[in-house]
Each structure stands twice: as C-alpha cells, then as structure tokens.
Amino acid sequence: MSGQPNGHSTPPKVDRSNLIPFSSRLKEGRALALDVWTIFNAANLPPHCINLGQGYMNFAPPKWVTDAAEEALNTVAPNHYSHPRGRIRLREAIKAFYGPQFNRELDVESEILVTSGANEGQYSVFTAFLEQDDEVIMFEPFFDQYLPSVTFNGGKPVYVPLHPPKDSLENPTSNDWTIDIDELRRAVTPRTKLIIVNTPHNPVGKVFTKSELEAIASIAEEFNLLVMADEVYDCLVFDGKEHVRIANLPGMWDRTVTVGSAGKAFAATGWRIGWLIAPKSIIQPTLAASTRIIFCSNSPLQEAAASGLEQAKERKFFENQLAEYAERRAIIVDAFDKLGMKYTLPHGSYFVLLDISNVDFPDNYPFPSSVLGRGRDFRACWFIAQEVGVSSIPVSEFYCEEHANIGEAYARFAFCKDVDTLRAAAERLQQLKKYLK
Q1: pLDDT digits 0-9 by tens, 98-124
Q2: Does residue 40 contact residue 385 with C-beta atoms inside 8 Å?
Q3: I want to staple 426 with a disulfide (CB 3.0 to 4.6 A). Which of 133, 201, 335, 388 is the partner?
C-alpha cells in the first residue's frame, strides 16, 4: 500500500498564506500598489545613478541645530514622553516665530499641536473630522500621501487638476499652472467636507497667488468647508514672490489648519517633527486623534527644532538657505536650458518639472514589469535613469487615473542636493540630447 508508514496517506496541503482578508481601504488608497518610491528606489537603479527623484537632502542639518539635538539627548527630561501637544519649548518657539506671520498672539495651549512629521498631523486632522464618505477636494498633481490618509479615514477623494501651461508658452513658470475656479465650484457637493491647499506646491512649485486663495476661500466660506493649508515649503519661495497664508484671509482663521515641518525647514526630514497651527475648535479634536495614534512625538528632536526656530532670525538662517536653494535651482534649470528642453520654473519648493514628452526611447527597451503598464513617464524616467544616470519621479503618480495623461508629460527632479551633486547631474543630463525627438 502506497503512502505513509502504517497506511496513512499524505494530507493535502492547505494554503494558509492569506487566512485573514485585509481591509478594502488599502486598495482604495492605492496603498497596496507598487508605489513610485519603491520602483525608483536606489536599490533598483544603477549603482552610479544620481538620485534627484526623492525629495530628501544629501547634506546635514545646520550644526547649531544638531548640537541642540545632542544636548537634548544628554539631558534627562527630553528623553522621556513629551506632552501630547508637544514640548512647551517648541510650542513657545512656534508661537514666537509664526505668531507675527499670522498677525495674532498664538495660544500655546490650544492653537499649536506638535506632530510626528507633517504627514501624521494631516492624518490626525482627517481622523478627527472625516465621517464615512465625506469628500475631500485635492488639486492635482497631489502629494501622494494625501490619498491613503483620506481613504483610511473613510473619506472620498475628489480631484481638481491644475491646468498646465499652454504649449505656446516658451518659458513657463509654476504660476502658469492655473486653477479653474468654476471647475472647483462644480466639484463641491453636499458631501464635501474639506479642501487641501498645498502652497508652495509639490511637485509643481506653484506659489498660489492671493487672488487664487481668495477665490478658494470664498468657496470654503460659501459651503462651510475645512481648509488644510499644507505649507511645509513656506521657507522656500523664490523670485520675490509672496507666500500668502490662506488662514490670514478674512474669515479663514476659523476654518483653516496650517501644516508646518521642521524636516523641510532644517534639512532634517528623518526627524519627523511637524506642527499644526489652527483655532482651538480644530486643534482640540485633532489632539484627541493624535494622542490615540502616537500619544506624543520625538522629544529630543522637538528640543532641537525649537532651538532652530529660536535662533533662525538672528542667524538669518532662512534668508541664507533660500539663497543656497536659488543657486541649486539655477544649476538644474541651466542644464535643461542647454538641452533646449521645456520645463516649469518653480517659484517655490525644491522640485522642477521637466517636459519629457519628446524623450525618444525604443519600444523594446528592457523595462522591468513594474514600469510596463504604467504611464509613458514611468518608462521615460526609467530610461533616463538607466542611460543617463540621473533618476527622477514620473508625475502621473500624483494623479488619479482619469487625469494621469496630464502628468505623463513630466518628470519631477529634486534639487535639494549639494551643489557638487547637482553639477554632476547637470553634466550627465546633457547626454539626453541624443535621445530627443
């Protein structure tokens, strides 16, 4: 008799790899899809490739800020839980630094909340205010974390695209990406709860004008919408443009939460220290959510961020940093000028959108499966990374499927890198000439 000893047959194998079904919200938020950051990760690109894709710096925070972090680590209290609102020193520093910018005396007990990065702060706002199927309007292209943060909290994204510059424009700027206010108004329904306004904008670099923000504010007032002002790049505004805070417009303080970031301000993206500034009616529910999500944020690095804000004005830190970023921006756009390629000159943030619609690559190029089936920009960016040795991010990732064709014409290049790296990238990019139609 065949089978096991003593006449026992082999039991059939049971697949136990997916016993418990995961939540549908992961699918709705595109969280399970192979994301662009994984595809264009350094591990998947040639070893020599210069990474201008991901928006993190390859230089250290200012030494006087890291010295403050070291001092905090060597002190007992900052190594333990902070108050869920944030360490009082940081809240006081935020009040002193930002209060004049909001034209008000900020209350450190009720109008400021320290969060574990800007992203967690935004997530906590969604948790605090969204009911199931509430709609959230976001302008496209949008920072990709918005989508899962909204859907994980029961919200439904509603997309309103920024309209790219007309083809006839020879030297477009981020200001040429425009809002159709009538289109925005039509996007509002009885289920609309919130609108996200990201200025300066990632990835376009658009600094929303006062008139644009006034039009958005008018709609928010008319339909009683909460406004999330994602202003993490507020310290990077070029060309004499004015960063207008929508919370400062008439009637808008009461319905606006403004998001800030120590990571963007002090080249410390891994510290995960952010903050929210808003009236008590918004901060208190958000605090209730944030306390249950994280309880509190990283204590010693809150002390370091506080030190940064306390000393920034005296050291003229943000003025000097802006000049350094202007130099970096010039290096990368000069490279595009030499190529004769069209790009969007950003007035804010540290990203440039390059028009890659005329990059010619063979259809039978050995693209990985992760790139095949995605937008043309995924293939173009992969080709440029492999053949030229400079990585970027395909912009269709920041669109819904319906509008992805708008993003397919662009690649996002980050210039938050040191000057030597950018010069090396600029030199390599000249090889693109032989691949242009």
Answers
A1: 999 999 999 999 999 999 999 999 999
A2: yes
A3: 335
